[in-house]
TrEMBL record, chain A:
This is CAAX protease. The chain crosses the membrane at residues 44-65. It comes from the Bacteria. Keywords: Hydrolase, Membrane, Protease, Transmembrane, Transmembrane helix. One of its GO terms (molecular function) is peptidase activity. The keyword Hydrolase applies. GO terms for biological process: proteolysis.
Automatic annotation (TrEMBL), chain B:
The chain crosses the membrane at residues 36-57, 64-83. The lineage of its organism: Bacteria, Bacillati, Cyanobacteriota, Cyanophyceae, Oculatellales. It comes from Drouetiella hepatica Uher 2000/2452. This is Yip1 domain-containing protein. Keywords: Membrane, Transmembrane, Transmembrane helix. It comes from the Bacteria.
Amino acid sequence: MSQRVKRLLWVGAGLVAFLSALIFPVLPVILQSLVIALGATWQILANLIVITLISILVASFFAPLEALGWWAGWYGDEIETTQHPGSLVEPFPTDLEITRYVVYLDGISQARFTYLPEVERFLDALAIDLPDNIVLIKGIMSYSVLNKPLTEDRLMAFFWRLADRLQMNPRSSIIGGLIAATINIRNVLIVSVSADQRYGPIYNQGTAQLIHNSLMGYGYQPGMPLTLIGYSGGGQMAVGAAPYLKRSLKAPIELISLSGVISGNQNVLQLEHLYHLVGGKDLIEKVGPVMFPRRWKLFALSYWNRAKRRGKISLISLGSQVGHNGADGPYGDQALLPDGRTYLQQTVQIVSDIIQDKLLLGQTAPQIHSSNYDRYQQSPFNRPGTYPLHQSVDPDYYRPIAPWMGRLILPAREQRSRLKGVFLEVHHAPPEYQYLVGHNVILRWSREPQVRSYLRAVTKDVHFSEDALYSQKQGNIHPYRIDHWQQVGPLESLAGARPNDDVIVRLKDPGVTEGAMGKEPSVAILTIAHEPVQITGRFYGLVQFLESSEDALVTDVRNRSEMLRVVHFDRASRQFNGLRETICIPKAVFDQHHGSHPSTLQDITKSPANVMGWYIYGAKDASGKFVVQSIAPRQLLRLQPDQVIEGKAAWTYLKQQAWKDLTKGTIRSVLLHGVKQNTAPSRPPVPSAWIEGDRALLVHVYGGIGGKKKEPTASSPIFFGHFAYGVATVIQEPLADELMFDIEYHQVYTHNTDGIIAGTIAWNRFLGDRQFGWLGRRPVCDLLIKLNVFTEGYAAQDAMGDWPQLALDSLIAQLEVMTARYRIGDGTGGTYVGAAHNCSQDSNQALYAALKDVQKRMKSSPDYQELLRQNPAQEQQFQQIVRLSKTIRRELMPFGTARADWQTEQNSDGQVSQATLGISPEEDAFQNIRIGLISWRTLLPRLASETIAKLFLEQGASIWVLRANQVGGYDPDIQPIAPTQIGW
Amino acid sequence: MAETAIAHLESLIFGALSLKSEAFQQIQVLSKGSQAALLVAFIAGFSQAIGQGIVLFSNQVRPLRFFLSLLMSALLFAFSYVFWALSTWAASILLFRGGWMTLPAVIRTLGLSYAPLIFSFLVALPYLGLPISTVLSIWSFLAFLTGLKAALGLNLWQAFGCGVLGWAVFEGLQRTIGRPLAGLGRWLTNTAAGVNLVTNLKDLERVVSRKTAPVGKEKLK
């Protein structure tokens, strides 16, 4: 290194040292001031944050005050919330019948009656997309119970006006943005008021009042379907108001939550359905599941989580790119989805489809385990297609089962709004309507008031719950074809109950509307007031099976059928010496679930019932051979008792003898006459005769399948059995020319593997069917109860045209409600056997409701009261029905009003206010058992039937006991099991 | 002399809030300790009355009576606190049979342990109110345990037992010989409010859904 360089280095070092010495004393000062400056800024910032927090805290305190003051009536009477009843997005349709109302509730940026431009764009587009008969209402200020915008008539109105202006301006500064955000903060606080358990009930009632006022202002009639759309915080507002609206409007309400922030506190179970639309980048919506504990999975019994399990909530994704608001929110009209639509177009499409019931939600998973029903389809005789539509039979030996018969066909979803019913493939019609046979006609409900109220009570959106999906996978038949359909009525649930359109029914006196051109089948409409009755077959005959060497059993292996020789009953000689012919009796498919054959022909000629002969039900196949689908022993159904017992012995028989003889294949028909209590013993009981046209209340109980091939549930020492109510009508049967019981059950039946559908089922279907029925495998006891005041009514009835229904009719109405509810599990798609809900409990719930109804109507009818005063005899009848219903209700509810759900399930209008079906017993095991035990008497089918029978006997009723023990062919591998007698 | 508990109220309250045993020892030795404790209870009572204002609103109490009711609740709260102290004291006698825990000492401890309940007005906050109320109750009970432990020389389990038994005795008294007093309290509250107040949360909800809103032509049924 040269000397010069060294010198330069030294100079440099010295310079640095000098400068350092110069600066060093000042350095701390510089640093200090820097720190101070920074500190001051922090301080300001910290203060600002504290001020903001305190302001929010103070604002929080005041947030509920408006609603609370309104509730407490502090503002006096001058407040008028009907002043701004919202506005219509499109003008009101004058000449159209409105089918639905839609109310839009905006998000937390709302400060006045008009919305942000993007929201208005959405509503305009939606209104264009919706048909004109749907009314869309906007402009309700749901963030104020007084319907008062922030920008008017308030202390801070000037500030809110500024904030709103800044909010409307897309190019405002950061400060402007912050000021604009105060509207959001203010409204978030209101959302928290609505979500609060204490303030919520008050606030939400206020919102409901606003919506109610608005609807009424635009011609809404209670009962019309309503859709609430809630965007962001509006979602919570809508959820909060819905239960109150439901109560006052008595209408089906569905809710579309658009990026909604929703607490789990409100009762979303009351909604028809909640559609929750969320984008993947929506950070605001995600606050809900975190901030609201009731939406955590931990709180499994919260309304939200229960609704989710019950299939009441559908989560619909708006796509991974969609956020909460602004350009990338659901109303964004610039950003494009992969399919080329804007976010806004997609949102409009989905919302519009939901409102019009066009949205396709994921269909249910296929079955994993095959069902009995599926296996039964393998045999052609179980398929309706086997039997040609046009048939004729020899009227001397065959008769149609009913004048009107046919096959129900579920319409396609897009046909529903036009059809307002289902199709019926007409199999048989009275002579004047012969031209309809073989054609599909429309089957609808009539428009009578009681039919309408029935429809209101049972029509529900159907969305399968987790339980229903699971049960379906296990091989049970659920109505999956109507899954995700809105407003499914009882006809659709019947037609769609099984995977195939194979529900064969008879109709009771349908009204027929023909087209203007006359006999044109495609425009004919049948209307009914009662549920169609499920039947088997089309024609019936009365025969005896023949046993002779030359007529030996011929088995047609190819058709899996057996040909059998029979001889028909001859009316003139009153003996089985009429036509001899060979008929076809197909083999029933083996029942894997219960482990036995549903029916057999083995030794059927040796059956004791063969002496009196059999009614055979069926139709001809393509080759013209009569195929027997169902049988009924004449001995059981004709009005010829084997024994008549009167007085106290009647009850003893019922209790001790009725189930005693379980000899396989036997039938017993015993007529009991009760003695009215509190009557003088000197007066002998007067047994009332059973004549044509009489109706009887039927109490049905069946037992179990035991023996070598016993059913799985028969393994335990206690066999519960099955319970059902029904109606038996005495008819004059033309083939035998004698009186016979025509029996219809109202089966409250849970979803099952056989495809048995809850509803009105004829004897020849429920018991007699050789594939689906129980006659050959189960012991059965039907009690036919005839007590004039219950089954026939009162003398006063004729005097009064619109006199309330008879007790029996009232019961039928209640059972039709219950079975329709069962078919769709109150919208969940499934019902399950548990202690609280099962055939027996819910049949008796219907009885309870019917008795209550009758008593209420009698007491509230002033004309009737007057009539009673004039006629003491009727007064006595009246007292009898009151006494009967009191004792029945007392017996059914031994612990007083213990089953609160029976009391509250239906409100005064007969509407089902709480949908309690479709909850699997596991979901709320403890509650389920508790309820079951409280109503223990109706939990056990046999005890329930005996209790009811006893109470009727005590009122002097006449009871026909029809017992059958595995009647038909002889199956050596099964034995009848009586339902266990417990409880007496 | 300025060495009264009233003068030191602020530091006493902060001490109790931070569960410092010194605060509870101090209030025992400073003069006017009992008055200070009563004051804390009154403030806590007033705060709680504000926090539970929803009850008054739900029952549709008019504005003037509303404030009257707030005052009345505060007074009743302070009054019931004395009885609570009494029952805790009785419990301590039952438990330990020692005369070394005097009634004024229990009054002072219990009163100061109400310090966290001064924040009870926060219960009125929408949505956050209910969790806050739970937190405050637990906080107050912890303060009470600290107080019993520090000022009266009990160990944690003794203090806990004393607190629980005290609560049981209080509840028992309320349902038996205290009934006329409780009835008097209810009568006072109802008189102040001008209506028969429904206070239970479940019942309140029922009241709200049964009563109709005060305004609007088309009333919800």
